[in-house]
Write a structure and sequence with these properties.
Elements (H helix, E strand, L loop, with lengths): L1 H22 L7 H4 L6 H10 L6 H13 L5 E2 L4 E2 H36 L4 H15 L2 H15 L1 E2 L5 E2 L15 H35 L2 H8 L4 H38 L5 H10 L3 H29 L7
Antiparallel strand pairs: 1-2, 3-4
Helix pairs in contact: 1-12, 5-6, 5-8, 5-10, 5-12, 6-8, 7-8, 8-10, 9-10, 10-11, 10-12, 11-12
């Protein structure tokens, strides 16, 4: 409860900073209207009065905050609809992509980290470590283009004349009718590309944490009792080894939404990332403000969830 209450002034401070930055951006809230070559100074003055932009900045911020608390994030000039509605329409596609990439990153990343830690300094360990460094240093846009080139343009040949050919863009071939196979085939490439960086990061942290845990006295005691190696690793060591990894996962989840901007743009995925790019190109201040506030809220929320998860993984953790 105390951590939750502490997050409220933090979110207010973040919203103030964002409001100030976007207000001082070139053109400010009037930027979409200033693109019209026929607009006159009288039109600008009338727009400022109608939109309340002739009032002091603190007054405008308080009014905006009051609207947000009522669930009104403003009106999108680029989509001609309320900001909240524009984001909710595209949120399911982003959650689908983020959920798939997170699942891949956690399962493969943590599994690879554990495998690497229990077989240190072997060929498998060096291979996983090399892949982790490769994944962390790989530019997302380049990897996305190479994946499209390999799996969508050329295809991967298989024995007996078969070939792996995946769609390169879009949510589905026919968005009006749901087909699980069609959705999965379109989801594979963007989900894998988006998960590579997190996967590499999780495996590195999991390996380091598990190596440290395997050297503790209670792990050696469990081995001396004759317990099976699998029981020692997963029952006695995994929960303690997961504590630092939880921090990385909690902090990276909001980054998946923010990082999906590049992935969704390249793969024409109709999610919030593409919505942000369109708002940026068309200088839609209201939509940019709403999107950035949602990202800030998610960062604070996942930090709070990480604190709760610590106490579950290690009962010794107390927030005094």
């Amino acid at each position: 409860m105390r951590r939750t209450l502490q997050s409220i002034p933090l979110l207010l401070l973040i919203s103030m900073i964002l409001f100030l930055i976007l207000d001082k951006a070139p053109g400010g809230p009037l930027a979409p209207y200033l693109q019209n070559p026929h607009i006159t100074p009288a039109d600008i003055a009338r727009l400022k009065h109608n939109l309340g932009l002739d009032q002091p900045l603190p007054v405008r911020y308080v009014k905006w905050l009051g609207q947000v608390l009522r669930g009104d994030l403003g009106y999108s000039t680029s989509n001609s609809e309320p900001v909240l509605q524009a984001m909710l329409e595209r949120l399911p596609a982003t959650l689908e992509l983020m959920g798939a990439s997170t699942l891949i990153a956690i399962v493969v990343g943590i599994g690879a980290g554990i495998f690497s830690a229990v077989r240190p300094y072997t060929f498998a360990d060096y291979f996983i470590t090399t892949f982790a460094f490769f994944g962390q240093s790989m530019p997302v846009f380049w990897l996305a283009l190479m994946m499209q080139l390999a799996f969508a343009v050329h295809g991967i040949p298989l024995p007996f004349g078969y070939q792996i050919q995946l769609p390169s863009a879009g949510l589905a071939d026919n968005v009006d009718s749901f087909s699980l196979g069609d959705r999965l085939s379109h989801l594979i490439l963007p989900a894998v590309v988006l998960s590579v960086l997190s996967l590499a990061l999780y495996s590195r942290f999991m390996r380091s944490s598990m190596l440290e845990v395997t050297q503790t006295d209670y792990m050696r005691t469990a081995a001396a009792k004759g317990l099976a190696p699998r029981t020692i690793i997963f029952k006695h060591g995994l929960k303690n080894a997961l504590i630092p990894v939880v921090t990385v996962i909690a902090l990276s989840l909001p980054g998946l939404i923010a990082g999906a901007v590049v992935t969704e743009t390249i793969f024409s995925w109709p999610g919030m990332g593409r919505l942000f790019i369109n708002a940026l190109q068309q200088e839609d201040i209201a939509l940019l403000m709403g999107y950035l506030c949602v990202i800030a809220f998610l960062v604070v929320l996942f930090n709070l969830l990480a604190d709760i998860t610590y106490a579950w993984l290690d009962p010794r953790v107390k927030y005094d």
